[in-house]
């Protein structure tokens, strides 16, 4: 198979008004660990090798600052920058060394609908990846709202080399091609009347860890806004929450592993019986609180 320039989804940078409170939540309740800090910026890791999964930046309001993807090589950064422009995106920052913890080199792009994507190569990895009970391992996916999925999807396929796994009535799921099998999706675009963050999902070891995480969240006063359940596309178990700053976050596990032979699903393949919104059918639909949060947090506007 022909691999694309992107190797993995690595991390997400978010802006919040109260970084210390968010750090307390993400370390004591969500169960990440501090990997590094620079001034007021906090970098949080899971139990996997990625240097960090989440970077917390002080801002006057909640913002999705960037989504970081790991490139397969340094030359792949130049390819991505070239292809991004050819397919309607723009280069915010050309290839240069990364000054933040994790290092490597990176290019920063805007996709045609204004999303900021950082593509990094040569970043450092952790070697201490022994299991930590109920700790997120890595990011599973970032789901991004789109006012026009049909127009937004080609950039991810043509400029970033991703492949469509499934298209439902409301979502387009794209995966990063792997040598063998890999996650059913790392990015998804959700049909919406906005281009805000839908949610960020964190991989847990198993269903028990997803459920224990839900218990920790309830103990800390955070309601399960959707779940527990098991999705159709991706086949992953889930619990959704609204965390600090209004960011929607998900504990998930059992993400389906697919390869080149996976048949691309269409909306007619993903229809639920009346009253169901997932495979198990035991959870209520997503709450109004969740739906409202999923339309509030945007990428920074393009400077005029």
Describe the structure.
17% of the residues lie in helices and 36% in strands. By secondary structure, it is an alpha+beta fold. The chain folds into two domains: 116 residues, 2,3-Dihydroxybiphenyl 1,2-Dioxygenase, domain 1; 156 residues, 2,3-Dihydroxybiphenyl 1,2-Dioxygenase, domain 1, CATH 3.10.180.10. The longest helix is centred in the first third of the chain and has 13 residues. The chain starts with 5 loop residues before the first strand and ends in an 11-residue tail after the last helix.
Give a short summary of the structure.
With 304 residues, this protein is of the alpha+beta class. Helices cover 17% and strands 36% of the residues. The model has no long low-confidence stretch (mean pLDDT 96).
List the helices and strands and how they pair.
Elements: E1 6-16, H1 19-28, E2 33-38, E3 41-45, E4 54-58, E5 63-71, H2 74-86, E6 90-97, E7 105-110, E8 116-121, E9 138-146, H3 149-158, E10 163-167, E11 171-175, E12 182-183, E13 187-191, E14 197-203, H4 207-219, E15 226-230, E16 237-242, E17 248-253, E18 257-258, H5 288-293
Parallel strand pairs: 1-4, 5-8, 9-13, 14-17
Antiparallel strand pairs: 1-5, 2-3, 3-4, 6-7, 7-8, 9-14, 10-11, 11-13, 12-18, 15-16, 16-17
């Amino acid at each position: 198979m022909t691999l694309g320039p992107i190797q993995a989804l690595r991390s997400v940078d978010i802006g919040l008004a109260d970084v210390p409170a968010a750090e307390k939540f993400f370390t004591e309740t969500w169960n990440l660990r501090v990997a590094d800090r620079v001034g007021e910026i906090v970098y949080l890791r899971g139990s996997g090798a990625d240097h960090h999964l989440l970077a917390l930046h002080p801002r006057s309001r909640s913002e999705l600052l960037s989504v970081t993807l790991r490139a397969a090589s340094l030359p792949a950064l130049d390819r991505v920058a070239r292809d991004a422009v050819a397919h309607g995106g723009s280069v915010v920052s050309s290839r240069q060394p990364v000054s933040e913890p994790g290092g490597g080199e990176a290019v920063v792009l805007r996709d045609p609908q204004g999303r900021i994507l950082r593509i990094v190569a040569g970043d450092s990895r952790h070697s201490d990846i022994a299991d930590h009970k109920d700790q997120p391992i890595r990011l599973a996916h970032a789901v991004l709202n789109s006012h026009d999925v049909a127009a937004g999807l080609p950039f991810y396929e043509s400029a970033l080399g991703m492949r469509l796994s499934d298209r439902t009535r409301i979502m387009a799921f794209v995966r990063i091609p792997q040598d063998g099998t890999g996650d059913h999706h790392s990015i998804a675009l959700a049909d919406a009347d906005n281009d805000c963050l839908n949610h960020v999902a964190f991989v847990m070891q198993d269903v028990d860890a997803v459920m224990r995480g839900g218990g920790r969240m309830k103990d800390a006063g955070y309601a399960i806004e959707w779940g527990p359940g098991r999705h159709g596309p991706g086949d992953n178990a889930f619990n959704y929450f609204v965390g600090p700053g209004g960011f929607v976050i998900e504990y998930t596990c059992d993400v389906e592993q697919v390869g080149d032979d996976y048949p691309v699903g269409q909306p007619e393949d993903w229809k639920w019986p009346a009253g169901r919104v997932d495979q198990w059918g035991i959870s209520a639909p997503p709450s109004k609180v969740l739906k409202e949060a999923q339309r509030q947090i945007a990428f920074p506007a393009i400077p005029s």
